[in-house]
Amino acid sequence: MDKKYLQWLELAFSHQLVRLFLVLLAALLVHFIVKRVLVRAVRDFSARTQNKLDDLFSQYKVFDLLAFLGPILVLRFGAALVPQMAPVLGKLVSVLWALFIALLVDRLLSVGLSVYERYPISRRWPLKGYVQVVKLIVYCAAVIVALCALLEKSPWGFLSGLGALSAILMLVFRTTILSFVASFQVISQGLIRVGDWIEMPKYGVDGEVVDVTLTNLIVQNWDKTLVTVPTYKLLEDSFKNWRGMEETGGRRIKRAVMVDQATVRFCDEEMIERFKKIHLIKGYVEKKVKEIEEHNRRLGIDPQASPVNGRRMTNLGTFRIYLEEYLRQHPQIRKDMTLMVRQLKPTPEGLPLEVYAFVSDTRWVYYERIQADIFDHILAAAPEFGLKVFQIPSGGDLREGLAALRRTDGGDG
């Protein structure tokens, strides 16, 4: 009985399909053991260490590739047990080797990119797009090697055969090629970096750059929505980058108030005396009065004969000087950058008096707070100079005017 059993086993093992089955079964068992025992042990060990690099290896599943390495080696050396199936197993092993190497390079590049992104230079020179290009090349090379192994052809002959398909490949990968060239120009010239605030109204972009990939630019708008824009669109269309504002440390105020032109007039003695009591322009008013008096006296002009004779101070001009001095005294206005208060072209809504200055705090909330405080003061100070800020009459203004008109007429009709 034992002899017959041994003979049956010998006959079974001599069959090629049985040997192939046993080789495949051994490969599966090795894969299961390595994944369940060895890989898990390596993960647990890396989790207990203080080194952060091995945590990245676990995060990107570099250790998991060990589970694929065992079966590949079993198939590689087990092919000798099935001579008739050796060519097929050899091709399978070549394909698996190509896939294994491509996955290994992919995950190692991801680990290297994660390490690089921990340093501040990564915000200035993001490499994610280039890493994606390298990964694409690696996978293309792996596919070519695998196909050459299956078809038993030389890689160079296979590549020469792809020449006829170059036009189709250019059409299929047009966006990728354009985006790669654009990302190279954008990064090399420092046009956009991660963390920059950019605006592209055409694409609804107004926020902070969170990622620059091979094909897309990802921006988180201030309303927390995410917008993706093809990288090559950065060169085709215009965009605004606010990085210069952050680097110089000055955020611009460029806003005007509309002055009612009917309230602009020459300064009389009472008004000048009142202006002399204003601390910020006391010296200016005294100096200006002497300068104007000397000018009129030198030319023999009698300013009392007519209001338009000679030179005179105006309430609007004095108010403009007051605002300039107010901004120069403001602790959060940059004095080393452009600072002026200017008149713009008159409009039907009034005469624009524009403040052009730079706030030293570029943070959005604080900038808006400082700007609001400045214009609160401007609106409150304008009546002290005999000026009114224009605004379009509302329904309430019209009703009050009609009521006053009725009272003047002495009746309702």
Largest sheet, in brief, is: 5 strands, antiparallel
**How many H/I helices?**
17
Lateral arrangement of strands in the main beta sheet: 4-3-2-1-5
Percent of residues in helices comes to 55-70%
What name does the CATH topology of the largest domain carry? Alpha-Beta Plaits
How would you explain this protein's 3D organization?
The longest helix has 33 residues, at 16-48. The strands form 2 sheets. Strands 4-3-2-1-5 form a 5-stranded antiparallel β-sheet. It has a 3-stranded antiparallel β-sheet with strand order 6-8-7. The radius of gyration is 40 Å and the shape is rod-shaped. With 413 residues, it is of the alpha+beta class. Helix 2 runs antiparallel to helix 4. 57% of the residues lie in helices and 11% in strands. Strand 1 (197-200) and strand 2 (205-212) form a beta hairpin. The chain has 3 domains: 18-150; 186-241, Roll (SH3 type barrels); 251-396, Alpha-Beta Plaits. The chain is built from 17 helices and 8 strands.
Briefly characterize the structure:
The relative contact order is 0.06.
Notable characteristics:
single chain; 413 residues; SH3 type barrels; 3 domains; five-stranded antiparallel beta sheet; rod-shaped
Describe the secondary-structure layout.
Blueprint: H1 2-14, H2 16-48, H3 53-59, H4 66-78, H5 86-116, H6 121-124, H7 128-151, H8 155-161, H9 166-172, H10 174-188, E1 197-200, E2 205-212, E3 216-221, E4 226-230, H11 233-236, E5 240-241, H12 243-248, E6 251-259, H13 269-275, H14 282-298, H15 315-329, E7 340-343, E8 351-359, H16 364-381, H17 395-409
Antiparallel strand pairs: 1-2, 1-5, 2-3, 3-4, 6-8, 7-8
